[in-house]
């Protein structure tokens, strides 16, 4: 690794700037020396992401963050810091550096720390999306359960009981599922990782931290998304109309 | 079934109005008596959908079509007429009637017409998305191959060789894959279904027609998307900012 | 679609004529305009189908119904109205129109109405067969549970508690499995579909109605079982001995 | 093991007595000392089994062989000697001894003799059924290919080239699939097992021999099909009409 | 089968000679006439195998038993009598006769005796390895649960409650899992097979007995591990240093 | 991250010291600042690992390296630098820091850099083990092919054509499999990663570098293998006999 600085762009796909701060802090806490974390808030979309609808509306703004950065000052890696990994495949098409989602990152790391892991998340309505991602990435055998605390995303920071509810849910998930590790199912839980891990005595994986580690490793190896099959090559130039930003490429 | 008319809304997720006409014609050709086809063009997004990026940018406009229709004159079924089934889960959250994607529709019908089917599509860069959907819906065993003609979506209508290239690709796919049926991998191929089927002597399934049949059946049974698990319940009310349309619900 | 009438043959694979009536009524209730339902009772086999043994003994008679109709007045679609889908692949070999089983039909429709569905059936000894079909058709992910009421098939109509037992079982299945929809696991439950659906407030799918919708759609598209791989081509001419009917083909 | 004789009933599901002889010889060649092979020809059904239709018509007669033997002189094990394993689950319900199909037997043995095996069979139209069984029994990973020689079942004995065609197909299958073993896909190939195995220098598994070994082992352990879940318990007593034999139980 | 004697080598992978006796007795109880059981204790490794670490340390000694026997007096089959099937693939490379593990043997036999089976084993820490083997061999569908009694391997013989604890656990497993058969998860339970089976009224499979039956069948057919793909060919000659035995081949 | 140094122990499971140097260099090239690489050669076992037999004989020595280091100066992470990931689960039981295998590491990283990857390895006899690991870790969908160059491990460094043979094989694998990335299937290829990647214009992943990145990330997060299910807890104390080293724990 050279003495140059590695820059990792961490994108908060919702529009809540406070959550971006929380995410940035979690990322910086684990970033290797000489790695800069650039944290960005999505300029358009929902204030929190708790449904398929929210994910769909968050994707264009999230992509505009990447295309803008690519035009001006490309990062060495992009992290999509929402547990539904919204827009991940699209982002891979437009970025020249690797792109990772935090659910993806957390699942990969958790699967190397024991036989099975459990996910503890916010609302039960998001379980389906998490289950889809588990299957899509290939972790059906390792993921033994997805559990909801029923705390909405934006209440995570304000609810004084978040820490204890989350700890109890994680402890119960370990026991019920016979798991060895816990994956936290929302970027907004990142600041509680150490507290919960200490309380339950088991590995607790926050996808933001996991993703920073993975991107730092990829940057050190000089890797980026492959384009040999054509799927992740730059999209063809065409007309995009009716959207608030110029999404045209090239 | 009563004498009332069933209304099926067929949405073209791209912004090309000519393609909407083609799709509407395919839908009307198979609609049962007393079934009205309402065809709508996406008001915002790409002029054709050939990448994950295009899909992500098409979803908000597509969803705005449904939420607008739900506010004014709800349909008895919604069909998303792009083979990547963009925005499908999100649409299910905001519609009070069933929602189907044309890839989904075509896979289901094809799987009941033989042991295996092959997909013949436009650009090879879209194969990955089609493969994801095959796996997601449970058709990994039945789908034996996905083949590209390398004809871009908007060239399908203008290229004088589309019919013969498509026919050759379908015939070859049947042979190579040992399949019994063909699924056409783009709504823009709908007008060629009969021609290709006649030429190759095997079932050729267009997802637009398949979807209309499925939605008509669901309407006759009085069925809509279930909300018992909460995943497809109406999304929670929240702030959506920076988008060209008011996406707020409720 | 032309003004000609579409004829769908609904076959009751057991020998109980009363059940054929019930099935015919369920089929007619959802048939599109200008679609005729021809309901036929199996002339040889068991009076109800509740075991692998019963299924094996029902198949020849069921096939004789199809071969006889093909010789005289071929239908535009055949529906096998027993939840074990007995003889389905064999029927596809001898029919010139599409053939669907009601388990197959119900699974396909249910999988498009939510993330997961539960099956509620008659005797627990039939669960294994239902599970085999779920796996065979590719719905292992979507089907979250198969539950028995322990009501024998022929008691469904006579037991005054059938409606309430079934409703309770469906409600409990939704809750336990976290499902969004219910599939009824016996053609003899078809007349209770609306009652149960109304009571539990979730989509309840009867395979007879689902199958009629699917076959009507296939007929409108002019589709039939593909024979390109040879598997579903007409069986080779040969000698069949010791059976009560001439099963020879050609 | 006691000095009593173990009796294994080998059933030829088709009506061709010459094939029963061939099967009986293959069974006797590998039967352990003090094991008697009782070979029986199906009294009703097709003269060869080469389609789903043939299988469906073979099942009742095959089951009548077992129920008759159970009434008079139950065997210690039953082997269904047709590669489609017709009527297997039904047979398990009515037999008090274990029942095995020859496809099942061959797949199990082959999977313990190398990483992958290939199946070489008669007509290509039977490949679908073999593939279904592979999936059903859990051998999707081990079975690497199913290949047809296009020799009809009844021509196996009369075609002077059967041996050389089969040998060539097996050798080619090993090479193409990267397999370690061959499964012969028809009971009528049993007499060629040694010849082919010698020629290609790899394990060649005939399901008849494999099944005899498995049943002898089960008999020595005193095992029979379990009925705890109820699925394989004796079917309920009921009326069976229109069939040439009394299929009533109890 | 000729009048020659078949010799099956049953290897106890741990160093406890008393357990070898127990295993040998179970093997002899089911061996066909004219089949000799040669029971051997591992000369190096742990006194019992209850972890991945124990398995890794047991493998070299276990392999030395086979290579030594191959040099002097090759057996007609080798059975690895520890439920983790340690060293199985390696053993296949160095033996000229078939090699089977007892977990593998038990799973295969159990899967032919009902729809689903349950495993009842010693310590819960071994469940992961058993689950891996279930998946590896293809029995994910048939194996419905793996249950621990928490009795350490070497206590099985000395704990006066072993029989009743095991019986209770097996009965409960059948009920909870809806299984038809039980697989005993440790060679040290072999002497309790009949007692437990009698008590619960369901098939109970001991892998030692199951393995002897499978190897006897393979020997009768003259089969051995295939080497066509090269994977199970004799390992290349090379230097092995630092080990207590000469592991060099050839 | 503190200013303390992170120590990662990279173990070469074979006894070839020259290969340890090569591996150490690859590890150091990507290690983050303030991360020390401790490279160790296995003191007992084969000089190269090219069979299941070699893997089994390599495991005890490999484990002795870890138990010795744990007794004296525990590392913050252990990397098993052989593509078969020998002894991985056992190592997790005895290490207090995370343990990763290089096949595992490479698969995880490759799966985030495109839709599919291909493995290019040494001898074809090792393909089976690689395929097992692919399935075990959950990458069956992403891994599209495993290809052998037929260069033995110890010839990689001496064969002047290794670079060009490997490059050609990687390029061909990309094309044949439609992959986006390449995984190198042997630690001995680590020094060729950049050369091959440059030549083929696609991401080439060496598991040694990938593993160092993953372990550095885990160390920054303070994570270690979870022991909640008991599977990866320290093995029970017991007697190990006949081995050249004292393998007793505690």
Describe the structure.
6 copies of one chain form a homohexamer. Chain A has 250 residues and is of the alpha/beta class. The first copy, chain A, has 2 domains: 6-101 and 209-221, Rossmann fold; 103-206, 3-Layer(aba) Sandwich (Rossmann fold). Chain A contains 8 helices and 10 strands. In chain A, the strands form 2 sheets. The first copy, chain A, has a 4-stranded parallel beta sheet, with helices on both faces. In chain A, strands 7-6-8-9 form a 4-stranded parallel beta sheet, with helices on both faces. In chain A, helix 1 crosses helix 8 (207-221) and helix 6 (162-177) packs across helix 7 (193-200). Chain A is globular and about 50 Å long. Chain A starts with 5 loop residues before the first strand and ends in a 9-residue tail after the last strand. The model of chain A has no long low-confidence stretch (mean pLDDT 96). At the D-E interface, helix 4 and helix 8 of D face helix 4 and helix 8 of E. Strand 3 of chain C pairs antiparallel with strand 10 of chain D.
Features:
homohexamer, 250 residues, alpha/beta, Rossmann fold, 2 domains, four-stranded parallel sheet, 10 strands, 17% strand, globular
Parts with pLDDT < 50 across at least 5 consecutive residues of chain A? none
CATH architecture of the largest domain in chain A: 3-Layer(aba) Sandwich
Radius of gyration of chain A: 18 Å
- The sequence of SSEs of chain A as H and E is EHEEHEHEHEHEHEHEHE
Helix content of chain A: 40-55%
Q: Please identify the top-level CATH class of the largest domain in chain A.
A: Alpha Beta
Organism (chains A, B, C, D, E, F): Gordonia rhizosphera NBRC 16068
GO molecular function (chains A, B, C, D, E, F): amino-acid racemase activity
InterPro entries (chains A, B, C, D, E, F): Asp/Glu/hydantoin_racemase, Hydantoin_racemase-like, Iso_Racemase_Enz_sf
Protein name (chains A, B, C, D, E, F): Hydantoin racemase
């Amino acid at each position: 690794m050279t003495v140059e600085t590695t820059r990792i762009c961490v994108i908060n796909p919702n529009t809540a700037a406070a959550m971006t701060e929380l995410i940035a802090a979690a990322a910086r806490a684990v970033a290797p020396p000489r790695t800069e974390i650039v944290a960005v808030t999505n300029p358009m979309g929902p204030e929190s992401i708790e449904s398929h609808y929210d994910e769909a509306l968050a994707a264009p703004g999230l992509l505009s963050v990447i295309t803008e950065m690519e035009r001006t000052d490309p990062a060495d890696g992009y992290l999509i810091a929402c547990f539904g990994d919204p827009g991940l495949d699209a982002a891979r098409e437009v970025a020249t550096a690797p792109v990772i989602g935090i659910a993806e990152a957390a699942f990969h790391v958790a699967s190397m720390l024991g036989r099975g892991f459990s996910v503890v998340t916010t609302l039960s309505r998001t379980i389906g999306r998490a289950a889809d991602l588990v299957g899509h990435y290939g972790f059906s055998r390792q993921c033994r359960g997805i559990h909801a605390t029923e705390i909405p995303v934006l209440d995570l920071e304000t609810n004084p009981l978040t820490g204890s509810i989350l700890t109890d849910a994680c402890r119960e998930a370990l026991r019920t599922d016979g798991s060895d590790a816990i994956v936290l199912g929302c970027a907004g839980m990142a600041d509680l990782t150490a507290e919960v891990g200490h309380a339950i005595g088991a590995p607790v994986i926050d996808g933001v931290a996991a993703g920073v580690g993975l991107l730092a490793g990829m940057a050190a190896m000089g890797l980026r998304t492959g384009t040999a099959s054509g799927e992740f090559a730059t999209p063809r130039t065409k007309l995009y109309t009716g959207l608030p930003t110029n999404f045209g490429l090239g």
